[in-house]
Amino acid sequence: MLKLINPMLNLDDLLKNAEKVIGERFQSIPDTHILLKRADGNTLGPDFVLRLRRPNGPKTILFEVKNNGQPREALRAIHQIQDYLKNYSNSYGVLVAPYISDRAAEICQKANIGVLDLAGNCRLAFDEVFIEYKGVPNPFNIRRDLRTLFSPKSSRVLRVLLNQPKKTWTVQELSKEASVSMGQVSNVKNLLDYREWISVSKEGIKLTEPKELLTEWVSHYSYIRDNFIEPFYSLKSFEEQMNVLAGNSVGTKVLGFNNRFALTGYAGANFIFPYVRSHTVSLYVDDVEFWIPRLGLKRVESGDNVFLVKPYDEGVFYNCQYFKNVPIVSSIQLYLDLITMGGRGKDGAEALFNEVIIKQW
């Protein structure tokens, strides 16, 4: 029986919506008469029982309604439904939730459990019946927590985990490594654990689904939108520009004060995995004006070959790698930038992922 309450719906509204969408979807089955019954709230068992009277015999459909459709809740629902099915002959189980994630739907499919969300999206497969609806807009797909997960401070924690996915971290270690508070780490841990992208043990936190995390991050990040990018033109050759960068204390301190810088984009990728050849320079910097005379730059509206980028957060400088004393952002940051910068960046990002990143995982 349903125990938790969705933050958007009270218990009664959630069950009313579930009853409505169940009726709509199952009425579409030809040559079928249905009898839908809501369970007694004081008893243990499925939330709804649907009796199908069909030409080839009766079928019982059992529904478990959950307040969310993420993988962890789906697994709990599967175990409950499988217990219910033992008490009903010729029966089939369905998870109902306001919104059901793709991964939760896959878990249910493998367990031969149907799924149905309150917008009417569903996958129902039993006997000779197969009903599938996809893409119905779902007002319950609330992603505020994902915006929190990929906020600047939270993303610092993600970079640490993605750059060192084999390591088990305590909250205190992650806090120090990512330069954020332990409270921030705890919030990120809860959001990742909710999606089962990490394992949590007495030893600490370990990333278990790096690909899923990185893929979701891409959908929330934009190199062009999130950073402040200024175009310039330089008469210096690419080699001359690299020599200037290499001669400036490997990107950590310049002239006695902090002035971080690191390559990204095509130029950065060419040092790591030369898939897209380009002499266009994209450089994350703390101080734009500092680099204009050193790289011989002129502000232009067209014909640019150098981009100075003020990052949305200093976390982009985490775990820089060095080639001939030239700092380059981590492969994770480079992948995020390439895949969202347009042009041939996506091709370069895919090559970087397949040839570098996935081999480190």
Your description of this structure?
- The chain has about 350 residues and is of the alpha+beta class.
- It folds into three domains: about 10-135, Trna Endonuclease, Chain: A, domain 1, CATH 3.40.1350.10; about 145-220, Arc Repressor Mutant, subunit A, CATH 1.10.10; about 225-360, Beta Polymerase, domain 2 (2-Layer Sandwich).
- It has 14 helices and 18 strands.
- It has helices spanning about 10-25, 70-85, 100-110, 145-150, 150-165, 170-180, 180-195, 210-220, 225, 240-245, 265-270, 290-295, 330-340, 345-360; strands at about 35-40, 50-55, 55-65, 90-95, 115, 120-125, 130-135, 200, 205, 230-235, 255, 255-260, 260-265, 280-285, 295-300, 305-310, 320-325, 325-330.
- The strands form five sheets. It has a seven-stranded mixed beta sheet, sandwiched between helices.
- A hairpin with a 2-residue loop joins β11 (about 255) and β12 (about 255-260).
- The longest helix is centred in the first third of the chain and has 16 residues, at about 10-25.
- The protein is elongated, with a radius of gyration of 26 Å.
CATH topology of the largest domain: Beta Polymerase, domain 2
Cα gyration radius (Å): 26 Å
Do you know the CATH architecture of the largest domain? 2-Layer Sandwich
Low-confidence stretches: 1-7, 253-257
How many helices in DSSP terms?
A: 14
Shape descriptor reads elongated
Mean pLDDT across every amino acid position: 88
Structural class label: alpha+beta
Multimeric status of the protein? single chain
Kindly, what is the distance between the CA atoms of the first and last residues, rounded to a whole number of angstroms? 40 Å
**Overall helicity:** 25-40%
Number of beta strands = 18
- Write down the domain tally: 3
Q: Mind summarizing the main beta sheet?
A: 7 strands, mixed
Physical arrangement of strands within the biggest beta sheet: 1-2-3-4-5-6-7
Quickly name the level 1 CATH class of the largest domain: Alpha Beta
Beta-strand content:
15-25%
